[in-house]
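Before the break, one more example. Copy the sequence into your notebook; we will annotate it together after we see the structure.
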Amino acid sequence: MSGTIDIAEKGGPTSTAARGAASSAERQAARGRRISYLLLAPGIVWMTLFLVLPMLMMVYVSFWTQTTFAVQPTLTTASWVRFLTSATYLDALWTTVRIWLLVLGSTLLVGYPVALFIGLMVRNKTLQTVLLVLCVIPFWTSFLIRVLAWRPMLGTNGAINIILMKLGVIDQPLDILLFSELSVLIGMTQIYCVFMVGPITFMLGRIDPNVIEAARDLGAGFGRIFRTIILPLSMPGVVVGAIFVSVMVLGEFATAAALSGRKTNMLGNIIVSQVGSLKWAFAAVAGVILTLLMGAVIAALLRVVNLRKEL
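Here is what the structure looks like once it is written out:
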């Protein structure tokens, strides 16, 4: 009996200390959660006020009743029916998707080789930085100036036509270069190509040169090295660049208006024209559709690569 009492007496302080340690750990965990919530609070408030609420308001306004020069907060689906049954607006939606796909492909086609050279062929970090700065230099000027600068380049009496005629490639100026969908594609490719080059260059710069050297030692040619090593490891950069380009191209309106002579209407142009006509409800419908399109594109791109894991 006395032995049992002694064991209980010895176990008492140990049990109390364990309970104290557990309580202290719980208090520290609770304090850590409170700090986490406080750190997240500014971001949550900001996103709620300037992202979630405006989007909800846009959806709400899209169901308002549109009159000639005003809107009334009477809910109706008239604006949605008008958009979804109009060949003009559906054609603008298809034009937006088509131009996005073409620009995405052209920026990848032009930007990937440039990124491959800067990120993989150039090993001097200073030279890499210089080359990337050269790619960014056009952004030191106004966006509209860069867009409008293509007009004298692509016109019938522009630099490109003059050079082609001097070289004997063409006999007369090409009218298709300006005020057409081709001019929009050329302008957007030049403007947004750098957003594809940067992320891909970053991912290519992370590839260990020893891995490529080992593949060469095993007899792999450049084609196989590219397919099995370079391309898979650069895919996160491709996806990030594609997201950047997609978001900006899908929301475009200035380049299409300036270089197509208003012959190419994208959803952004529809929104601008409807807002200018004070047709807020119809502009909200186009905005909701454009937002859903962007969300679907980003969700599809994020399924290609797990960026949280790769980056």
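The radius of gyration is 29 Å. Confidence is low (pLDDT under 50) at residues 1-10. Try to locate both features in your own notes.
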